[in-house]
Specification:
By secondary structure, the protein is mostly helical. It is 69% helix and 0% strand. The chain has helices at 2-18, 24-34, 36-41, 45-56, 60-63, 66-69, 75-88, 93-100, 124-139, 146-173, 178-188, 190-195, 199-210, 214-223, 229-242, 247-254, 260-263, 273-289, 295-310. The radius of gyration is 33 Å and the shape is rod-shaped. It starts with a helix and ends in a 5-residue tail after the last helix.
Length: 315
């Protein structure tokens, strides 16, 4: 009985050990002998993974098998091979383009998805890097790479539009924070973000900047890069108000963005004379604390106050 068990174990081991490993050469021989469909059907999960990994690693021998295996690829196997080819694209674009070219490969059902970034579970930063690398690789191929590059352009454009819509949706749904606004600006550009802000959101941002807190002044610094005239007007007023709270950081942010004569000249046309005098006192005190850094602004402020004192009535 022990001998029989040992014999059976040896036979099972021998059968397992004798199973040939999957290589480009063994697959080619199998295709020649029994055809692509039977070759694919004869592969177990390990064999399919080996094929996929070989393609994914941009090995030219593995990639060259795709047109030959195409008649046997369908369903999940076709999807797996298409994604592997897409992964190989930035690393070996000539081989991938040759494998999916219409002249060689009309039977592969995943052929038209290879250049569309057919990845799931990848974040936007990963996809952006992939696009940049693949775009550069395809440009080197000239006209041969253009159809694929055109598909790639459409895919990244769709991704950007989706991301922008999601970001705008988040900006409209959530309470605006410096972090959220800066992330949106970094992602979509300052003018695009500003164009999506409601009047109420702009007013809220202005009020937050006017408090003089550093994180909101960083937002002002980014928003000041915009070409939006209304935003610049709001920033001028908000930064001027913030002078009395945090003059040092305000002057740093305003440099290069806002005219100092305007910023320090009490730009509040709707304020009364008494309100302006209160503002003057608070802002002058704050500017004196930063000494030399505040001297130029203080000179403008004093001059405006002198004009105000000598003006008739209460404006």
């Amino acid at each position: 009985m022990k001998k029989l068990a040992g014999l059976l174990l040896w036979v099972a081991f021998s059968a397992t050990a004798s199973q040939p490993s999957v290589t480009p050469q063994s697959l080619q021989a199998s295709i020649d002998k029994i055809g692509a469909a039977e070759t694919i059907r004869g592969l177990d999960e390990k064999g399919i993974n080996t094929l996929s990994e070989g393609i994914l690693n941009a090995d030219t021998q593995w990639i060259a098998l795709v047109p030959k295996l195409a008649p046997g690829l369908e369903g999940g196997n076709a999807t797996t091979v298409a994604e592997a080819l897409a992964n190989a694209l930035p690393k070996n674009a000539p081989a991938v383009i040759d494998a999916i070219s219409a002249k060689k490969n009309t039977d592969f059902p995943g052929r038209n998805t290879v250049c569309t970034m057919p990845f799931s579970g990848k974040d936007d930063n990963w996809l952006a890097r992939y696009y940049k690398q693949s775009h550069a690789a395809l440009k080197k191929l000239g006209t041969a790479g253009k159809p694929c590059n055109d598909q790639l352009e459409q895919a990244i454009s769709g991704l950007k539009n989706t991301s922008t819509q999601q970001q705008h949706s988040r900006l409209n749904r959530q309470k605006l924070t410096p972090e959220l606004i800066l992330q949106a600006i970094d992602r979509d550009g300052v003018d695009d973000v500003i164009s999506q802000l409601s009047a109420k959101q702009r007013a809220n941002i202005g009020e937050a900047i006017a408090q003089g807190k550093r994180e909101w002044l960083l937002v002002a610094d980014s928003l000041a890069e915009s070409k939006d005239a209304q935003m610049h007007s709001m920033l001028l007023t908000a930064l001027a108000k913030a002078l009395s709270q945090n003059p040092g950081d305000v002057l740093t942010v305003a440099k290069g963005h806002v005219d100092a004569d305007l910023l320090c000249g009490m730009p509040f046309p709707e304020a009364s004379k008494s309100e302006l005098m209160q503002y003057y006192q608070a802002t002058r005190k704050a500017l004196l604390k930063i000494r030399r850094r505040g001297e130029a602004c203080l000179a403008v402020l004093d001059q405006e106050q002198s004009t105000l004192v000598n003006s008739p009535g209460d404006r």
